[in-house]
């Protein structure tokens, strides 16, 4: 079966929160702050994502006791709140507890504008500079528990930490290779493992297709997925059965693969095979499965989809091309196949030869992301937030008008091209730029935020 090798967000993994302080400052102030923080962690999108240490760390003994209350093997990240000023002595205990686990660390400093009660910010400077001396990365969080911006930063840090955890040690199945002449999608397996710990498990198309066998019941069940679609060729029953057969066959082949994400060479070999009619429509339905799929053998596209799923396990990330520019309306045309029809805002239709399934993308907030690995091993991330507009695009396949939130449409596409990013981006509904920025800090890589 296709399975994740890392636990999903709902499988008991959390962000740990450690509270540190000094006997030189008010323990009552620290305790009051912990109460406010506990209240924050039980609200809204933060609820259920954090595990709070059971004790305030004020010296070596209490710090080790507090650390023992956190299961570091089940943590995606660690937030250390400087509940008051605290010397870096306790940092050594923290790093000993972390060990060689690649757990991102955030240092949380409070905002004190007038009377200095906790001196938290000064303590955070001390901890951060010490981490830097040790060559250990960190993220600075700044604000009080009642600050909405701080809650947003905690949410983004948690999402990035989940993505960091899913990427490290992930397995990406590469079925075949990249599509013909898409040489910009080629990835050096050794380099990817060095940079992210990702293993590429490659199999041939021939071996994969040998496992793509389905019985009549599976075909009929697959055909039901197109019950609401229209067929330009006229014979709707035959069209649904052809699509159902391809869906069931590809699902059977994918069920034999154990991976966190899949990159598949779908064209031209599968797309134009007589017994795989409707490959692109079937890939759209298969994109609903727990393991994300990137067509055209796009390994880094698959890794990017893995990040999006870590941000939101219920999301349906999809590979897309930036195919059109409308300068007058400051928007781009996004266009591709293999998109889940659950993201459609309008009717689904199939062309006469079942090659393309067409529907408009639903309106809403969207983030475009691309993890990219240069040939010299440099890892970088492109990200841009924006909106899919309600106006329907006339393009075929799954298409929509994308308006960037903080940049011009032409600026976005020029930046993407000038920086040499591969021509695919991964699109996911929601606002995820802050999480990507946190992930970039955790990975120590460049983020091109447009």
From TrEMBL:
<dbReference type="Pfam" id="PF02952">
    <property type="entry name" value="Fucose_iso_C"/>
</dbReference>
<feature type="domain" description="L-fucose isomerase C-terminal">
    <location>
        <begin position="362"/>
        <end position="448"/>
    </location>
</feature>
<dbReference type="InterPro" id="IPR015888">
    <property type="entry name" value="Fuc_isomerase_C"/>
</dbReference>
<keyword id="KW-0413">Isomerase</keyword>
<protein>
    <recommendedName>
        <fullName>L-fucose isomerase C-terminal domain-containing protein</fullName>
    </recommendedName>
</protein>
<keyword id="KW-0119">Carbohydrate metabolism</keyword>
<dbReference type="InterPro" id="IPR009015">
    <property type="entry name" value="Fucose_isomerase_N/cen_sf"/>
</dbReference>
